[in-house]
Amino acid sequence: MQFKAIAIDIDGTITHMDRRLSLRAAEKLRILDVPVVLATGNILCYAKATAKLIGVCCHVIAENGGVVTDGFDKKPYVSDVITECEQAYDILSEEFKMEKLDSRHRRTEIVLNRNFDIERARVILSNTDLDVEIIDTHFAIHIKSKKINKGTGLVRMADMMGLKTSDFVAIGDSVNDKELLELAGYSIAVSNADDFLKDIADHVTGEPYGEGTAEAIEYLVSNGMLKARDQ
Fold first, then answer.
1. Which of 11, 155, 167, 188 is the most exposed place for a label (fewest CB within 10 A)?
2. Cα separation of 228 and 175, whole Å?
3. Is 18 annotated as a binding residue?
4. pTM for the full predicted model
């Protein structure tokens, strides 16, 4: 089956662990003759800058599905879920000394430095009525609404593009990629991915990080699953 688009995580999937962009992965994404959707837990401006640096177009799922846009200059769709996340942060602040990250730019979730007991925080929030969850992406800790994720972001993006989620290949590495991989028509985990993500993926690469993504795209193109531009 030939798929019509690809949705791919950024950090840990097209970057190295230190967030250096894999130039090989960028090159492979750039030669694809299908839309490339960057699906990240990071903020919108970060994702837009990454898309421009790679040389792919303008489809972005940011903040774990909370912010979605199909154009660099278009007004993004922003989920109205930040209030409960802020309430959760206020509750946890009574127990932990926490450091917010990118707080000026976050519009749908609270993101924190990985310097507190996440399991204890989960227990505290389980005793509230807040419809939020805490996830650890290995780069940061996110307090996010349970109503949104990269999967819901993919549903919205597919609708914007006139596609179905099954038309997409998805590639990721972490807990916040779970729903993305589950909804896509074909899913790939890079070899540095969390074990449970490897278990649900259709294919697992031999190489980690951006090298794994480059390997994955070569596999998809060589098997006729994604179309590449004539070189």
1. 155
2. 29
3. no
4. 0.96
